[in-house]
Specification:
About 20% of the residues lie in helices and about 55% in strands. Helix 4 runs antiparallel to helix 5. The protein has about 260 residues and is of the alpha+beta class.
Length: about 260
């Protein structure tokens, strides 16, 4: 027998996710069991997940072993300070496994679309693939209180990425996260006339102070090659147990090229 309270309570026990129904719900029992609520709040304290003002739909056939189909639409999802807008989630729940057929939304000036699975019976192990476009790395680092880049702007895209790990809590996600992403994007470094003058001065001082030759060469290359010039980024990011490494990432424009190996 379909009981929405039992279903939501079981989901909370297994995942820590709480679904609060803020309005009266709608039911339809033919030809399938259909449940909907136009105002739900979904949150998870451990990961600081908050889905606000969402519309929730749950569909199930009368066959005893049939899965539950979830559709969630929300204008705003907040995960640890990062905002996802205009999101749509289509998922299936069966045998303690949540399968995301589609999860898409707007993320920091860009968009993403993912699919994958979460195994609730195995420490919330997840395996997710998908793509994203024009995501601002600056805003993510700023909202996570990791770094503030005032003069370097970086936006990234990927047509194919995969990540996996365990989502028991925030720490387990960070420690177990692994995956790979083929990325492309853009970068723009703002430099001033004073900095260009300083770089030129370093070049002159090299004759008197040979010890600063390496520093002068590096500073001149960065400022003269990438300063105030649109630059492209392309390569592969590897993630292994929470540690990110680069693989043959090319940073180039009409004036030069660098590679991170």
């Amino acid at each position: 027998q379909f009981n929405i309270k039992n279903l939501l309570n079981d989901l909370e026990k297994q995942t820590g996710i709480t679904i609060k129904l803020n309005k009266n719900s709608n039911w339809n029992f033919y030809p399938k069991i259909y449940f909907s609520n136009d105002d739900t709040t979904i949150y998870h304290k451990e990961s600081s997940l908050l889905i606000s003002d969402s519309k929730l739909e749950i569909v199930k056939s009368y066959w005893p072993f049939s899965p539950f189909y979830f559709n969630i639409n929300s204008p705003l999802i907040n995960v640890n300070g990062i905002e996802i807008k205009n999101s749509s989630i289509n998922a299936i729940y069966k045998n303690d496994i949540i399968t995301f057929d589609n999860f898409e939304g707007d993320l920091i000036e860009g968009k993403f679309k993912i699919y994958g699975k979460i195994n609730l019976d195995n420490k919330n192990y997840f395996d997710i693939s998908g793509k994203f476009k024009n995501i601002s790395l600056n805003t993510i680092l700023n909202q996570l209180d990791i770094a503030v880049w005032e003069r370097l702007t970086v936006k990234l895209s990927s047509n194919n990425f995969n990540i996996n790990g365990y989502a028991e809590n925030k720490n387990s996600i960070l420690k177990s996260l692994s995956g790979k992403a083929k990325i492309s994007g853009s970068a723009y470094l703002i430099t001033s006339d004073e900095e260009r003058f300083g770089a030129a001065l370093l070049s002159i001082l090299v004759e008197k102070l040979p010890a600063i030759a390496a520093v002068s060469k590096s500073v001149n290359f960065i400022i003269n090659t990438y300063g105030n010039v649109p630059t492209s980024i392309e390569g592969v990011l590897d993630i292994n147990e929470g540690k990110i490494s680069s693989k043959n990432i090319d940073i180039k424009n009409d004036y030069g090229k660098s590679s991170l190996i």
